[in-house]
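User: Fold this one for me? It's Single-stranded DNA-binding protein.
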Amino acid sequence: MNGRITVSGVVQTDPRSLTTVEGLAIATFAIRATADVSSRIRISASREFGPFVVTALDALADAVATGVRSGDHVVIAGSLHLAPTSESGFVVAELHADAVGLDVRRRRGDRRPVGCHDSRILPS
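Assistant: Here's what I get for Single-stranded DNA-binding protein.
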């Protein structure tokens, strides 16, 4: 199953990054999704969400590798891919990120820029 999705949650692992021999930067990390009380979709508060495996590519991967840390609250927009595992019957939720941002509603500590390389935007 593939679909567009926006997910907010807490980063569970520091990003792991690598560059392929072709020069493609890849960063991956896991997040635990949080329920959005403002959403029109209602999910029971007693349900615990499983982790999402997030993958970012190219410039976004570089920004994620330097700007995201375990414990950060993030918002991610991208493409959702669900893949069943053969041995356990569980489903792995992979999120191929188009955008990653720190959730300023739940920010802690210092601000760090993430995923923005537009020269028209000046740092504050």
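One thing worth pointing out: The longest helix spans residues 58-67.
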